[in-house]
Structure formats: C-alpha cells, structure tokens
Amino acid sequence: MPINLIVAVSALALTAPLHAKTLAVAAGDGAQARLQEALILAEPGDVVELGAGRFTLTDGLSLDVNGVTVRGAGMESTVLDFTGQKGAGEGLLVTSDNVTLRDFAVENTRGDGIKSKGADNIVYYRIRVEWTGGPRETNGAYGIYPVESTGVLVDGCKVTGASDAGIYVGQSKDITVRYNMAEYNVAGIEIENSRRALVTGNLVTRNTGGILVFDLPNLPVMNGGETVIEHNLVIANDTPNFAPKGNIVAGVPRGTGVMIMANDTVLVKDNTLVDNSTGQIMVVAYPNAFDDKRYNPFPRRVVIGQNRITGGGTDPALPGGDQLKAAFGGALPAVLWDGLGGKDALALAPRGPVLTLNVPAQGVGMDKANPALVTPADPAELVMPGPVGAPAALEARIAR
C-alpha cells in the first residue's frame, strides 16, 4: 500500500468514531421528547434518522454534539411541523461543528426555521423550510440561518415565506450556496458580513429581492467581501415587502434582482435575470447613519460581468419611480448604481454575445461632488483572492 494512502487511512481511523450508531425516531405520539432525547444522546459520528411522516412539535429542538448527521426520508416525506409551537424561538438550533442536516422539512416555526451558530463545517442538504400560510409579517425571519461559522454548504434546499431572508449566511467565511430554490421571501438569498462566498446555480423567484450581498455596521464580524454570484436564475422578484418595520430588509424595493450594498470585491457574472421590476442589478451605499468607525458604507471593487438580462425596470418601487422610468424611456437600465463610492466602486465587463446585455450603469441620485467613474473592465482583473466557497471536504458528507 502506498505510504500516502497508509497515512490517510491511519488519520481516518484516528478521527472516525469506533461505535457510530443510528438512532431512529419515528413520527407519532411523543415525538417531541423522543426526538430531543435522540439529539442529546447522540455521539460524534452518529446518525439521528427521522422516519417518514409528520412530527407534531410544540417546542424548539437543539443539537450541541459534534459530528452528528440528522437525516430524514426526504424534504416532502419527513416534516417537522411547528404550527403549534409555544415559544418564539427557532425550530432547530445547532451549536456544534461538523453537523450534516439533510432530507427533511421544517414548517411554520414561530421564529427562524433552522439556525446554526458558531457551527463550523456545517452542511444543509435537501432541506425544505416553509411557512405554509404565504408571505406574512408574522412569519419567522430566516429559513436557513448559519451565522458565525467557518465552512458552510447549503445545497439543494428550498425556502418559502421568510419575513427576512430565506437563506441567510452571516458573519461567516468559506461558504457555498448552490442549487437552491428561494421563493416568496423578502430576500431570497442574503450573504451578510461574510467572506469568500460562492452563490451559484440557484433559482430565486417571487421574492421582494432575489440575491443580496450586504455589509452592515455594529456587528461582531465586519468587512464582508470576496463573493462570486454566478449561474443563478433571478426571475420576477415582485412580492411586496412584508418585513417587519425597522428591519434592514424592510427597505429593499419590491422588484430587486441582485443588490450589492457596502461590500468589497464582488463579481456578478453568467446569471440570467428576467423581469425584476425595479432593478435587475443594483450597487448601492449603506443609506443610514452609523457610528461604527470600522465600517465602510460604500461598495468597492464590484464587477458586473456578462449576464443575460431580459425586461425589468418597468415598475420601479423607488421614490419618484414613475419620473425615473419616464426619464429613461419607459424602463430603468439593467444596472443601477447610486454613484457613491469613488472611481473603483464599479466596473462593467465589455459587451458580450447578443443574449448578454452589458449597458453603462446609470447613477440615480449621483453625488455631483464625487462623480464616480464607470469604465469597461475585464472581470478577470478582479479574480477572487484565495479559494472561494466551502471546503471541498464538505462534499464527501453529501455523497454518502
């Protein structure tokens, strides 16, 4: 046996549990106690296996053991039903590392659907989170909600009805969000105060805003950036904003396709954007007052590459939207920029194939004292430094 294979096998033997087991939990009477007990008794390497059926739950669940897999029979077959939840917390809270959540659904939580905090190398795979009564302000804020983590993979999930963001990754790094569907949320997918994120192959439709990349002040982790948004379908995000008043996403205009706010080094390329009624792609500064001296409110080094863009801009939910639309001949441009941030804020790729629309960005309310420049640029000039996305080791956990 080659020496490198011997070393790899030996390392696996040292880290793999010797007595990993499966803890099976069936739906039915007493499911709340039996499921929480399994999550407490699980040991590293164990699988908590949820049977097919509807688990009627009245309180949130928690997991704080490393290396556990929670696996159902499928996102339509195994449903954790929190319609009768008594508290206001999340449905499931994970605070341990190397956890895999896969193949089940969470419905109608009073708070967030599934939250993981400080949980490194976490995988969400084929998870459905839904508020079945449609878009409502009283729905939970976040569907899938990893925060303060290194190593996040959200793959093949579906989220519907979140009153803030369907899929939200915050204050984290080394992130992949791929092949998901987000619909009828305020924000479909949001990457906030995070670094090295890859958002690829997702369908975001009928949200208020499709894909948001934000940096906000006064958070423990600051200076988000190094994000790639590619190969996504961003279609008809036209749901009126139903976020509770005071939330930052309450200011997202209905009809936003992709919005980059106050972030650093972001590449938007090879996406298809159709009929987002306010703006297909928007690049903006943070609009509110703040007192955090660490914070930069302006977008920096944002590259809009070649994207397929159809329609949009015909019903802008902006102050003076009708006048703006008339000024631009009946529809706002495909790329909107507020003009703030200096000459390195935004660059556009050269014109591409016929199906690709790359138009000069139009500054709406441009700061005349700081007339930022928009110049054609090759996206290759801003190659993301270092690896972008989740560690490759997370892939093996969903191949089993």
UniProtKB/TrEMBL annotation:
Gene3D superfamilies reported for this sequence: Single-stranded right-handed beta-helix, Pectin lyase-like (2.160.20.10)
Chain ranges of the Right handed beta helix domain: 67-214
Keyword list, A-Z: Signal
InterPro entries documented for this protein: Beta_helix (IPR039448), PbH1 (IPR006626), Pectin_lyas_fold (IPR012334), Pectin_lyase_fold/virulence (IPR011050), SO_2930-like_dom (IPR022442)
Signal peptide stretch: 1-20
A Pfam family reported for this protein in Swiss-Prot or TrEMBL: Beta_helix
Domain of life: Bacteria
NCBIfam families the UniProt entry points to: beta_helix_1
Protein name according to UniProt: Right handed beta helix domain-containing protein
Species, as recorded: Novosphingobium arvoryzae
Taxonomy of the source species: Bacteria, Pseudomonadati, Pseudomonadota, Alphaproteobacteria, Sphingomonadales
